[in-house]
Write a structure and sequence with these properties.
mainly alpha, two-stranded antiparallel sheet, 13 helices, 8% strand
Length: 292
Amino acid sequence: MPWLVPLLRHPLWRKYLWSRTKTFQNMDNLYSNFDTMIDLRQSDKNLKEQKLFFDALDPAMNPSEYQYSREDLKAEVITFTAATLDGVSAFISPFIDNLLTHPIFYDRVVSEIQAADRANKLSKPVVLYEETTRLALFMACIKETLRRDAPAQTILPRLVTQPGYELFDGQTYIPAGTQMGASPYIVHRNEAIFGKQPEQWRPQRWIQEESGMSPKEHEAYVRKMERYGMWWGYGDRECTGKYYAQMEMQKLCVELLRRFDIRSATPERRFKHARWAVGMFWNQQLIFSKPH
């Protein structure tokens, strides 16, 4: 119904219909909150000293670069926030499930966060992104969930360009114009890259002291895993919002484990996990309570 599009875009619809919807009101709140944050950043001494995600686009900090207006920055915030919703939620569900089904790691991660909190290494009221990266075990669990349960499951096909492509075995030639793709699910279960038991969730593969490898061997091993990791796509088809999504998921996961005791409402029944364009989940019932 192409005739419907211009009708829905009419200013009267926006004024009298869309403006009354919950979605519009929530987006309007997001815009208002961004204005408040920018004003606080300019007036609060502590905030002035912090590095924020969109600093690189701030005209005051980059006078020689393209001068983005405040409205431009708000539009970018809206775009990134909306675009990362699916990916972040598709990550957090299996991340929490992996911890709950591996209670030893759940206890260790919570203890690590609590110890950092007691040592005043986590900002209040919300942890900084840089602080989350210093939680070694927490980051190992993040990386292992990205590996085994990557939020983006699409193959992202590409067309082979001229003059064609020869595979690494030196025996197989792919002619130009052929559509090729790679499945993150299959790639991330390659034992030659990710080590033993690739089907299992094993955060210790990312921790040198628990990997059974020397520091030098483990450094090369991690570089190899990160090189072939497709948790945000790969190459030209890589997710443009991956840094924003990574920031969101790490801060949110730390705060969930920092503020709540989490347990499954149905421990006898796992939630349903379907790998479509992004991970999709049903019937994940959780109980959040104040920590003891």
